[in-house]
Amino acid sequence: MQHLPTPDLSDNSFLIIEDYEGMRGILRDLLARAGATRVSFAANAQAAMPLLERNTYDAILCDLHLGQGLNGQQILEEARHRQLLAPHTVWLMVSAEKTAEMVTGTVESRPDDYLVKPITETLLFTRLTRQMARKLALAPIEQAMRDREYLKALNLTEALLGQANPHAWDLKRLKADLALHTGNHAHAREVYLEALGQRDLPWAHLGLAKIHYLEGQFDDARRELELVTRGNRAYLEAHDWLARTLDRLGDLEGAQAVLGRALTTSPHAPLRQGQLGEIAYRRGELDMAADAFRRQVELARHTPLKSAEPYLWLSRANLARGNRDDALRALSELSIDMREDATARLLARAMEIPVRLRAGERDRAQALAAELAEDLKTQVHELPDEAILDLAMPLMDLGDKDTAATLLTSLVGNNHEHPEMLERAKAVFARAGLAEEGDELVARATRAAVESMNQGVKLAREGKLDEAIEFTREARARMPNNPRLLLNHAFLLIAWMEQYGRDVRVALEARSCIEAARRLKPGEKRAGELLTKLELVGNDFDG
Amino acid sequence: MGEDGTRLDISTFLLSSIHDMKNSMGVMAAYLQDALALDHTPGAPAATENGAREKTTQALYEAQRVTDHLIQLLAIYKIDQAFYPFDPQDHALTDLARETLARVADLARIKHIELDCDCGDDTYGWFDYELVFGVVVQALHNALRYARGRVMLRIQPHESGVRIRVEDDGPGYPDFLLAQGNGLNRGISFETGGTGLGLYFAGVVAGMHKGAGRTGALRLENGGPLGGGCFMLELP
Question: Across the interface, which of A1, A103, A116 has its CB nearest the CB of B121?
Answer without folding.
Answer: A1
